[in-house]
Design goal:
Layout (H helix, E strand, L loop, with lengths): L1 E5 L4 H12 L4 E6 L18 E5 L12 E4 L6 H6 L1 H22 L2 E7 L26 H21 L3 E6 L2 E2 L10 H11 L3 E4 L5 E2 L2 E2 H13 L6 E3 L5 E2 H12 L5 E4 L14 H7 L5
Parallel strand pairs: 1-2, 1-4, 2-3, 4-5, 5-6, 6-11, 7-10, 8-13
Antiparallel strand pairs: 9-12
Helix pairs in contact: 1-6, 3-4, 5-7
The structure holds uridine-5'-diphosphate-xylopyranose.
Length: about 290
């Protein structure tokens, strides 16, 4: 089995590659442009006969021969995806079209990593896959959330029109080893600030919630989704829900009781509540690890 992983040098991608490489018969090809990913995350596989690393930006077509595609490529942290918003849209739309074109030519199964951000500033709580979302189409986050929504549409149209085998995961806020210290997401920000003895920057109001998923659990969900029969979309996340005030206090207690917590201005369109309904994931993918 030969498997392509786009964005395979990133946080989730590189842990996924570790898992795929553990299977003795799989060959893994990673395509990454290193915008947020790093070769360092894959260094143990470089030179391995079943592993290949390509510097490639998927907004351009890629010609390889594979049986499965894990299509992860796209910056995930809000500061990075907003940095070059047009490029984020191109990655999600043109990149996904290119990967679907590849899947169509090869009759390969393709899994797309979508996001909880497709639910926007959700009016339903927790978020079920059947909820259509409350998304600002012209806001600063739209390049990402609308980009991912369009990519989901493309996945389903290729599935209906050409019979491509698709899988869609909607990923909630994920953390774990190999996260870039300057990633910008809240877990790594607070931990880095606590270590540097800088105030933890809780963006107002501080009562907004998130559900944080450990990267290895997430990777288990991705491989189960790929190997199962359900197209998705399926929420992949941890249902434990915390306010940003609670998270800051937990980091303060665990890492640096002396560190200050400061309230700072938030960015536009920040979702107020986010928690996955994981009923469907439990039914279709089995019981998650605890
Ligand atoms: O320093 C910080 C950073 C962030 N925050 C807050 O923490 C919360 C979480 O923000 P993050 O930047 O970690 O990211 P978000 O949860 O908004 O989006 C994330 O989750 C879903 C994924 O699919 C996305 O790729 C990812 O960006 C927000 O409410 C934000 O306002 C802080 O309070 N302080």
């Amino acid at each position: 089995m030969r498997i392509l992983v786009t964005g395979g040098a990133g946080l989730i991608g590189s842990h996924l590659v570790d898992k795929l490489m553990e299977k003795e018969k799989s060959e893994v090809i990673v395509a990454d442009n290193y915008f947020t990913g790093s070769k360092d995350n894959l260094k143990k596989w470089i030179g391995h006969p079943r592993f290949e690393l390509i510097r490639h930006d998927i907004i351009r077509p890629l010609f390889v021969e594979v049986d499965q595609i894990y299509h992860l490529a796209c910056p995930a942290s809000p500061i990075f995806y907003k940095y070059n918003s047009v490029k984020t849209i191109k990655t999600n739309v043109m990149g996904t079209l290119n990967m679907l074109g590849l899947a169509k030519r090869l009759r390969a199964r393709i899994l797309f990593t979508s996001t909880s951000e497709v639910y926007g500033d959700s009016l339903e709580h927790p978020q079920k896959e059947t909820y259509w979302g409350n998304v600002n189409p012209i806001g600063v986050r739209s390049c990402y959330d609308e980009g991912k929504r369009m990519a989901e549409t493309l996945m389903f149209d290729y599935h209906r029109q050409y019979g491509i085998e698709i899988r869609i995961a909607r990923i909630f806020n994920t953390y774990g080893p190999r996260m870039n210290i300057d990633d910008g997401r809240v877990v790594s920000n607070f931990i880095a600030q606590a270590i540097r003895n800088e105030p933890l920057t809780v963006q107002l109001p501080g009562t907004q919630t998130r559900s944080f998923c450990y990267v290895l659990d997430l990777v288990d969900g991705l491989t189960q989704l790929m190997e199962g029969t359900d197209t998705g979309p399926i929420n992949l996340g941890n249902p434990g829900e915390f306010t940003m005030n609670e998270l800051a206090k937990a980091v303060q207690e665990l890492i640096n009781p002396e560190v200050q917590i400061s309230e700072v201005e938030n960015t536009p369109d920040d979702p107020r509540q986010r928690k996955p309904d994981i009923t469907k994931a439990k039914e279709r993918l089995g019981v998650p690890r605890t």
